[in-house]
Amino acid sequence: MLDLNLLARISYFFLILFLGYNLYFRYILKIKYTKFLILFSINMLIGISLIHLRNSIPDFYSMIFSNLLIGLAEIFLYLAIKGMLGLDDNWKNRYYILILILFIGYMIFTYIYYDLSIKMMISSVYFMSFDAIIGLMFLRDRDKKSRFINKISSIVFFIGSGVFAIKLFNAIFGNINPSYLSNNNIFIYLPYFYLILFCIWMIFLVFIYRKNRNI
Which residues does 36 contact at the CB level (< 8 Å), separation at least 6? Predict the structure, then answer.
């Protein structure tokens, strides 16, 4: 039977594969936007690792810092997709406001009033919104040569948004065990399954967009 620790290990494998893949495209093929995918992979990998060390390290690192790294990873992913599609984004510092909001939310509901459900709601809204925005970016792209691939990409990210919408629904109405690692329902597993699907698709997508070296 699958559990969170096993899914985490599978996720580590795909994230490491994705990281190595993007290192090649960044430093050998000199594709600029892949630097954000490298940062995405590193932050996501460390963040998930810290979560699954919850019983071995202080709560600040396993509950707060870990989720901040994962939130930062999503911002790097967003910037990578903007670069991939040739969209300008000169005001990158504004996104740190979102990380500050995550930090405040996680601090309150970890140290002042502990509530795992509310923390899951905060993170679910965060990732659901980002994935929906990225899906729309692909859907609205006007490059005729990449139209079919971009439509599939939009579907992949809308699936991600849907996964976190389901997780949000479960956080509101489900029975959540206060100990995150003790939860064993499908709603907790879904983001890990999606992360694996995401890595597989992004490896293919970066290969398709490999000629956009001027971005």
Answer: 76, 77, 79, 80, 83
